[in-house]
Automatic annotation (TrEMBL):
InterPro entries tied to this protein: Cell/Rod_1, Cell/Rod_MreC_2, MreC, MreC_beta-barrel_core
Region of interest (Disordered), residue spans: 277-366
Gene: mreC
Biased composition (Low complexity): 323-360
Protein name as catalogued: Cell shape-determining protein MreC
Keywords: Cell shape
The organism of origin for this protein: Pseudomonas karstica
Similarity annotation: Belongs to the MreC family.
Keyword Plastid found: no
Keyword NAD set for record: no
Span of domain Rod shape-determining protein MreC beta-barrel core: 124-269
Length: 366
């Protein structure tokens, strides 16, 4: 009699097959890039799950904002108006300083970035691995994001893009153990390397000399030496400096300025790839356009050609004079009475002999 339910392989065999398959997939994913297109396509499906899991929080925020009290809203409105007025006053000063900075950098022909293009992104997920500090944002390759692009929030740098997908990207945070960034002390320009420790609230400065001028409370900013992060953005604040006389390097710990565990809206920084000459030309064109709109006539420098030195007189070779033979009878007897060399010699007098008849000549010979 045939059994009603067919008996398949045991649970132990199934578990062994699944374990082997999982290990094989992990090895292939780590060693090769064969599964990268598959992961990219799967991200399209997972994006919907991210949106669904985040939906309750969005609904709660919408409901709470709708039922907020009128008093709280009015107080918040007054506070925002005051802050807006203060920020506008500061912005007027900042605009003048920014314009002055741009013109000075153009005069110095500097290649440093003055203003970067940024785009707002939203955090939609986090890596569940506790030993990896990575987040997922809602901007991907279709939005112009590139590998290594810096990411920051309202307080400072957060990390860089390490993996691209069509509509999402993975960002490696500064506190990851595999991440390092070149920094400098804002007070004196001391350069160092800030590395992640695996703690979201701590960074460590590697290979800082024990005699280095660094203090608790110093602000660390990006130096831009790695050509990955733009210079001048805040990275961390020094929290602890330990000097050990028996060690060549001091132990320096810092706290990131960015809210790595709390920021939801981030900024993607797009670097300016123009050459210094192109930036100077664009700035000059913008300045001319602004002057034209303000009715200011641009001062066009007149180019005066340099004075031409007078040409040297041409030296024409003079052929030597042909010597003229002078008859002996025409030469003067005394050399002192000879005429000067500059004067041409006088013509010799012609000697005229009287004509003698041939008959008389014969009689005289006889």
């Amino acid at each position: 009699m045939k059994p009603l339910f067919t008996k398949g392989p045991s649970l132990g065999v199934r578990l062994l097959v699944l374990v082997v398959l999982s290990v094989a997939l992990m090895v292939v994913d780590a060693r090769f890039t064969l599964l990268k297109p598959v992961r990219s396509q799967m991200s399209l499906v997972l994006m919907q799950s991210y949106w669904i899991t985040d939906l309750p929080q969005r609904l709660w925020q919408g409901v709470s904002s709708q039922f907020g009290s009128r008093t709280e809203l009015a107080a918040e409105n007054e506070k925002l108006k005051t802050e807006n007025l203060l920020l506008q006053g500061r912005m007027q000063k900042l605009a003048a300083l920014t314009e002055q900075n741009v013109r000075l950098r153009e005069l110095l022909n500097s290649s440093a970035l003055v203003n970067e293009k940024v785009e707002v992104a939203e955090l939609i997920g986090m890596d569940p691995n506790p030993f990896t500090h990575r987040i997922i944002i809602n901007k991907g390759e279709r939005d112009g994001v590139v590998l290594g692009q810096p990411v920051l929030d309202a307080r400072g740098l957060m990390g860089q893009v390490v993996e691209l997908m069509p509509y999402t990207s993975r960002v490696l945070l500064l506190t990851d153990t595999t991440h390092s960034i070149p920094v400098q002390v804002n007070r004196n320009g001391l350069r160092a390397i800030a590395s992640g420790t695996g703690n979201p609230e701590s960074l460590e400065l590697r290979h800082v000399a024990d005699t280095a001028d660094i203090k608790v409370g110093d602000l660390l900013v990006s130096s831009g030496l790695g050509q990955r992060f733009p210079a001048g953005y805040p990275v961390a604040t020094v929290k602890e400096v330990i000097h050990d006389s028996g060690q060549p390097f001091a132990i320096v710990r810092a706290v990131p300025t960015a809210a790595l565990n709390r920021s939801r809206y981030l900024l993607l920084v797009f670097s300016d790839n123009r050459t210094p000459q192109e930036r100077a030309n664009d700035a000059a064109l913008a300045q001319e356009e602004e002057d034209r709109q303000n009715g200011i006539t641009p001062n066009i420098p007149v180019t005066v050609p340099p004075p031409v030195p007078p040409a040297a007189p041409a030296v024409v070779p003079v052929p030597p004079a042909t010597p003229v033979a002078t008859p002996v009878s025409a030469r003067p007897a005394n050399p002192a009475t000879a005429p000067a060399a500059a004067k041409p010699p006088a013509a010799a007098p012609a000697i005229v002999q009287p004509a003698v008849a041939p008959a008389a000549t014969r009689q005289r010979e006889e």
